[in-house]
Specification:
5% strand, two-stranded parallel ribbon, mainly alpha
Length: 159
Amino acid sequence: NNHIFRVFQDQKDKCGYDYRALSLLTAADRLQHSSQVIVPALNSGNVVISDRYFYSCLANLQARGYENDQWIYDIAKKLPLPDVSFFLDINVDEAIKRVRSRPNEKDRYIDIEMQHKLRDNYLKIAEEIGGVIINTDSTIDKSFEEIKNKINKLFFSRR
């Protein structure tokens, strides 16, 4: 599913794809992963750290104008809510500069207008759910340190 979605993202002409169908594939993958990996790990008392949770599906659908598609919210209700969600934020121009600095992605198609919409939607979701926004325009180490400090506060406040 990730490969199919990546192909979609990298195409300038997306007329051959129904974005909602791709979103359903992604949502199904997240639901499967949750039931097979996340929930059993949580039930065993483990801490689960996940890269790109269901909020990615929501942000992408909303950015493409599907704010009223209720089915995505119905699927989201089947997933456990995280104790904390981190949203790594950077301005779009810097993000594109970083992508273009990678030799294998220097010529990759990027829909700049869509990137602005996605960023706006991620920030809106973060605000709605009480997510932690981490500005990543500095070094990786500084961003990691900020996340680590927030996680330590979360765990130590529960003891």
